[in-house]
Design a protein that fits this description.
This protein has four helices and eight strands, in the order E-H-H-E-E-E-E-E-E-E-H-H. The chain is of the alpha+beta class.
Amino acid sequence: MRLTRTTEPQELPVDLASAKLHCRVDGEKEDSLIQGLLSAATEYLDGPAGILGRAIVSQEWLLELESWPAGLTLPIEPVQSVSITYIDADGVEQTLDAETFDLIQSGASQPTRLVVTEGAILPQLGTGIYPVKIAITAGFGDAAAVPKSIQTAIYMLVAHWHEHRQPVVVGEAVSDVPMAVSALLARWRVVV
């Protein structure tokens, strides 16, 4: 199995002006710093390797498999759509009929599953590596569709990192992420 992001999000979940307002920064002197912190906070949270384990703003992923799965938990959430192509026995790329698989979405706390429809017959695959390709569109949508708790957590991370630019602050309790950020994000974490 191989998972690759094929299309990056077209925007960050929050904009620079809102982040500056949250950090109480006037002027343009620190724009590049705050923009970098916004990008870092988004990378920290976003995608299957991020602490949320989900896509934030719409993006495209390609999941490649060596064989047909009987059932498969998709590695990225929230899933907007899925399309499946495969290399047939003659070495030609084909698109699998959408009625062959069911997309089972159980809610925010459960991962989306892809299951073979009862009675469906899967075509024979070619012999190459990763003949099954599942294109996944994932994310909440555009920045305006991102839940406010995730946006607020990003603002708080940016403000925390802006204020504390060193890894350790003498005289304060050691904390990688402020507790309020963890609390805001807890309900959005994907649990596998």
